[in-house]
Amino acid sequence: VSVVNSDGGGRMVFQVLRNGSLVMTARPDSALFDEQINLTREMVLQGNVDPDSTAFDAIAFDGDASAVREDDGTVHVFGKNVNNNLVEYRFTPATGVWTTHEHATPGGAVLAGEPSTFIDGDRGVAAVATSRDGHLILFRPDGSTLDLTAQATDVDASRVYASVGIVDDLISGRIYMYGSDMAGAVVEYRFARTGDIASTFAAETLVIAEEARAESQDTDGTMFRQSARDVRLLQSIEAELVGNVRHVFGVDGSSRMVHL
After folding, report:
1. End-to-end CA distance of the chain
2. Strand, helix or coil at 244?
3. Distance from CA of residue 145 to its chain's centroid?
4. Which of 32, 52, 197, 235 would you call most buried, defined as having the most Cβ atoms within 10 angstroms of its Cβ?
5. How far is residue 183's CA from residue 29's CA, in Å, rounded to a whole number?
6. What does the pLDDT read at residue 216?
7. 175-191 burial, b if ≥16 CB within 10 A, otherwise e?
């Protein structure tokens, strides 16, 4: 699920059903009870869309949803569809209306990871999704795209897979993205919150020094330092900013939670 909160205590929770429908469970500000709406069904009824048509394929989700709310109350929910594009559900508070928008994937790219939606500094709302060949592609509501991985000095060393974790660091003035490569190493993308992305973009693979790894206790009570394999992240990554410290979370090959 993906959750957005309002300034007045309300919230919207989004989940995807097996048939690709986007369902919203919402509690308006000051309300006592939740209300649940199948947004995809509403779009089908409004547009007289045949559920077996290509028009339905364009608005149905193929995987999880990722949502974000702007300061003015506009809500954007992104997800992949079966057309290998991103579908966006957008709520405009001034009208109280939901609309859908399909954003084409750049030619030749095949999306693999689930999208991650975020506020891209002063540039506004954006979503990023990984392609099958490890490129992280940025999508904007206006339909424009940018291959972030292609901005790296060493493209091959900067490929990432699955979903990425994103941090908007107001103190440093940068956007940070964390993804895992094929070996499970964590790759950090960073660029300025304002202005042109390409001119401030950098990517590097994080090296977790041996002395920085946590100690664990063996079954016989012996203490040992975790190996490099113990800090490999092989699935989607989440990232959070607490104070001025960035925290990265993921799962290793043994289904254990790793915190960097």
Report:
1. 24
2. coil
3. 15
4. 197
5. 45
6. 66
7. bbbbbbbeebbbbbbbb
CA separation for the pair 189, 126 (Å, rounded): 15
Beta bridge partners of 92: 97
DSSP characters over 86-142? EEEEEEETTTTEEEEEEEPPPTT--B-SPPEEEE-GGG-EEEEEEBTTS-EEEE-TT
Measured distance CA(102)–CA(78) in Å, rounded = 10
3-class DSSP string for 60-75: CCCCCCEEEECCCCCE
Is residue 187 within 8 Å of residue 205, measured between CB atoms? yes
> Is the CB of residue 55 less than 8 Å from the CB of residue 38?
no
What is the H or E stretch that residue 56 is in?
helix 54-59
pLDDT digits (tens, 9 = 90+) for 55-67: 999 999 999 999 9
Residues 6+ apart with CB under 8 A from 97: 91
Average pLDDT, the chain: 91
Give the DSSP H/E element, type plus range, for residue 103: strand 97-103
Q: Which residue has the higher pLDDT, 99 or 28?
A: 99
Structure tokens belonging to residue 15: 């989940």
Q: How far is it, in rounded angstroms, from Cα 110 to Cα 208?
A: 31
**Closest to 161 measured CA to CA, from 138, 142, 186:** 186
pTM: 0.89
Written as one letter, the residue type at 242 is: V
Q: How confident is the model at residue 164 (pLDDT cuts 50, 70, 90)?
A: very high
Average pLDDT over residues 94-117: 94
List the beta bridge partners of residue 186.
180
